[in-house]
Write a structure and sequence with these properties.
The chain has 397 residues and is an alpha/beta fold. It folds into two domains: 267 residues, Rossmann fold; 72 residues, 2-Layer Sandwich (formyl-coa transferase, domain 3). The chain contains 17 helices and 13 strands.
């Protein structure tokens, strides 16, 4: 089945994670995403080794499935001319270079909108295209520090700063970029105009601080790390069981009462230290000690079975491999199988949004370098003779 934005043609001039995440989201929604890689070498994630599958970088394959891949030397005039011709017949350009790079190449937004006034130009950078940091290069680690995320992640203020375990700002910036592209496409349907879409790792980090920023603006105090606990409600955190760890989400009065009933500790509700959320937060350390002592008496499975019967949100703390094998992840098509010409079959993360009528059913594996160059250029009107000449001169692969 076609996805909901089938027919939209996107040129992804991006690498590593933020831009490719944006392209991946849009490809899964049905767009034709053409990944344009640099010559030589292609996307830098092709060299994120190990790990690899039959010599193909696993990181590259994870981020670039469902795309067509071509390689163009944009340092050559003919390479730029090829790209400009493609822009004329496309809907969206995604790029995640440092500020000024596209302009230096002669393919910045002001140039491209003259070629195609309807083009949507999505820029994902470290800090955005305006402001005092706009010319700086950005990385997820730096963004997590700058936006306060590392100050609220970890066990306590006494421990070294810790980043979130995943490249949170990269991935979120890609999703924000895709959201912006979709909004721009809707606007274009109304008035026919293309526009720039500008987002960044910096903004992606800030939007994850909603709760902590709410505390800061109300109290004038920056909250610190709480381990797995919640800054506004309790008990809502990880607990050690007899054999492992589980998470328990008693985040409101109803789930709190379910928890103490399941623990056979209903007398805790009579204790003024714990009878409402305000008091539980004030006495969190004492509460955790009491609950932890009880939860250590049974295994994770025993507690999850008990809590599930009471309707209390809870779950195991899975490893990534365990998550890949989780029956619910599999049933929701979040773990899928794709095929790469070099690596063969491998697992990938699936589309996180489901539709009642427009789910795309099959995903392509990530392309090998230049896999679709000839096919794509023919579709854009280049002749066999032109393509052969470009190949012979190293303009394309």
């Amino acid at each position: 089945m076609p996805g909901p934005i089938q027919g939209i043609k996107i040129l992804e001039l991006a690498q590593i994670m933020a831009g490719p995440t944006c392209g991946l989201m849009l490809a899964d929604l049905g767009a034709e995403v053409i990944k344009i890689e640099k010559i030589p070498g292609g996307d830098d994630t092709r060299r994120f080794l190990p790990p690899d599958i039959n010599g193909e970088a696993s990181a590259y394959m994870m981020m670039n499935r469902n795309k067509k891949g071509i390689a163009i030397n944009l340092k050559e005039t003919d390479g730029i001319n090829i790209f400009k011709k493609m822009v004329k017949e496309s809907d969206v350009v995604i790029e995640n270079f440092r500020t000024g790079t596209m302009e230096k190449l002669g393919i910045g937004y002001e140039v491209l909108k003259k070629i195609n006034p309807k083009i949507i130009f999505c820029e994902i950078s470290g800090y955005g295209r305006t402001g005092p940091y706009s010319n700086k290069g950005g990385f997820d680690l730096v963004a997590q520090g700058l936006t306060g995320l590392m100050s609220i992640t970890g066990e306590s203020k006494d421990k070294p700063p810790m980043k979130v375990g995943v490249p949170l700002t990269d991935i979120t910036a890609g999703i924000l970029g895709a959201t912006g592209v979709l909004a721009a496409l809707i606007n274009r349907e109304k008035n026919g105009d293309g526009q720039r879409v500008d987002t960044s790792l910096f903004e992606a980090g800030i939007v994850h601080t909603y709760w902590q920023s709410a505390i800061a603006v109300a109290t004038g105090i920056s909250p610190g790390p709480l381990g797995s606990a919640h800054p506004l409600t309790a008990p809502y955190q990880a607990f050690k069981t007899k054999d492992n760890w589980i998470t328990v989400g008693a985040s409101n009065q109803k789930t709190w009462l379910r928890l103490i009933k399941a623990l056979d500790k209903e007398e805790l509700q009579l204790d003024k230290r714990f009878n409402n959320n305000d008091n539980r937060m004030k006495n969190l350390n004492s509460l955790v000690k009491i609950l932890q002592k009880e939860i250590l008496n049974k295994t994770s499975k025993e507690w999850i079975d008990t809590f599930d019967k009471e309707g209390l949100p809870c779950g195991p703390i899975n490893s990534i491999i365990e998550m890949h094998k989780d029956p619910h992840a599999i049933s929701r098509n979040m773990i899928i199988e794709v095929e790469n010409k070099k690596a063969g079959k491998s697992k990938a993360i699936g589309m996180p949004i489901k539709f009642s009528k427009t789910n795309a059913k099959k995903s392509l594996g990530a392309p090998i370098l230049g896999e679709h160059t000839e096919e794509v250029l023919k579709n854009f009107g280049f002749s066999d003779m032109e393509i052969k000449d470009y190949k012979n001169r190293g303009i394309i692969i």
